[in-house]
Amino acid sequence: MNLKHFRRLTIRNLLSHIGILVVFTLLTHLLYAEEQPSMLDTIEGKGEPPTGEILEYFEKAKGYLSVPEGEGPFGSVILIHEWNGLVERVKQVADSLAKEGYIALAADLYSGRIGTNREENIALVREVRADEQTLIDNLNAAVNYLKSRTDSNGTVATIGWCFGGGVALTFGMGGEQHEGTAIFYGQLLDDPERLASIHHEIHGTFAGQDRNPSVEQVENFVEALRKAGIPNDIHVYDPVQHGFWLYVERDLETNQEPAEHAWGRLQDFLQRVLQSEQNEGNE
Predict the structure, then answer these.
(1) What is the pLDDT of residues 59-109, one digit of tens each?
(2) Domain 48-282 falls in which CATH fold?
């Protein structure tokens, strides 16, 4: 075998090995992606069973805690459930946020109870709303727990859906200092004087086909925030119905694109408000 032929075989073998390595890397990536569902997978109903832990952080509350890998420090997010209680989907969202690098605590406002029909849900909402101080105390305890963790950077934001969105706004006006409030189609206010007690950015995601809150109510809310001087990122997605983001699979064709856009905005918001260097003046 001459030297020229030897070199040709060597290069051929080398290219073969490189090809095998590329294929192996791609397969590994695909397998890893299947083992680690994204947030979009989660809200489309493709999430895995929750892997976090139950946390009794306030009286009889049985919250759900999911923590990122590593030492941190991490920003923290409090998730506030819908009118039926702390169900599995909210826990799965907490897990997805932990994979994004946030300490995620899904609050429990119903002392471990879950509503199974409209009547039960309404009764639970009325019970909690009738005792607003306990509601605030519950979420204050969540904030204090998160800020006291050694892997926390001291910043906290809230995210609430429907009933939880309205609760998040209430807590933004009257609760412990935190750095951001994200509202998904929750009950709103249009009084600038009341909203002026909020000292952080408001993030809002709403549905154009919703009646509660309606587009007009959202517009009035935005105007009140403007008058109160509160920074905000509010977006109405025209084609979708109430509840489109947490349960995208209910109408995948209509909901998927708006849900992806809303997730991108939420990621930007959390990165913006949960950086300790940017929020030192708020402590």
Answers:
(1) 999 999 999 999 989 999 999 999 999 999 999 999 999 999 999 999 999
(2) Rossmann fold (3.40.50)
What pairs with residue 159 in β-bridges? 79, 182
Query: Is residue 171 within 8 Å of 136, Cβ to Cβ?
Result: yes
- Say how far apart CA 58 and CA 141 lie, in whole Å: 6
pTM here is: 0.86
Q: In what order do the strands lie in the sheet with 63-66?
A: 53-55, 63-66, 103-106, 74-80, 152-161, 180-184, 201-207, 232-237
One-letter amino acid of 185:
Y
Residues 88, 94, 100, 103, CA torsion sign: negative
Residue 213, preceding bond cis, omega within 30 degrees?
yes
pLDDT of residue 12: 52
Q: How far apart are the first and last CA of the chain?
A: 76
Give the C-alpha separation, 184 to 91, whole Å. Answer: 17
Neighbours of 224 (CB within 10 A): 19
The CA-based angle 52-58-59, given to 5 degrees, is: 120
What does DSSP say about strands 201-207 and 152-161: parallel, antiparallel, or unpaired?
Answer: unpaired
CA distance 250 to 229: 37
Question: What percent of the chain is modeled with pLDDT above 90?
Answer: 83
Q: Show me where the domains of the chain are located.
A: 1-35, 48-282
CB 193 within 8 A of CB 169: no
CA 133 – CA 123 distance, rounded (Å): 18
Cβ-based neighbours of 24, under 8 Å, separated by 6 or more: none
Place of tokens 């006291």: 148
